[in-house]
Amino acid sequence: MAGFGYACAAVLAAVLVRAGVAKAVRPAETATGFAALGVPAPAVTARIVPLLELVLAALLLAAPRPGGAAALVLLAAFSAFVARTLRRGLSVPCNCFGTARAGPVSGVDLLRNLLFGGLALAALLATEPVVPEVWALAAALVTVAAGATALRAARRR
Length: 157
Description:
Blueprint (H helix, E strand, L loop, with lengths): L1 H23 L2 H11 L4 H21 L1 H25 L7 E4 L7 H17 L8 H25 L1
Helix pairs in contact: 1-3, 1-5, 1-6, 2-3, 3-4, 3-6, 4-5
């Protein structure tokens, strides 16, 4: 089960990198989406959340158990905003993966978060990686994400 848990942590890390980069390359659009969802301080949060997602992705690879626990907390927070939006009957874009996902918030988003939560729970079963290459992989993942973000920002200017 430890290998399965680590594989789930790696898959969730990839999802978080995708989501973090998608938000980071378009901070204004991310802030607009966050504002529509009722996220506090959307402009600031639009800068913090992508960074948090990228750091969490690295943590999932380097230390899957604490990463899995942190991912559960983050997914619970995301799900709370989605659930609140659904309860209010608002039709706003999810912005869960930046502007790459422009459809309105729906129950599918909660189901997706539940499935991601399953990956995070499975990561709790992983043994701590003992090979130094995992740290290198985590650093490379964050470096690639940061580079992609910088390139996209440069292209927009």
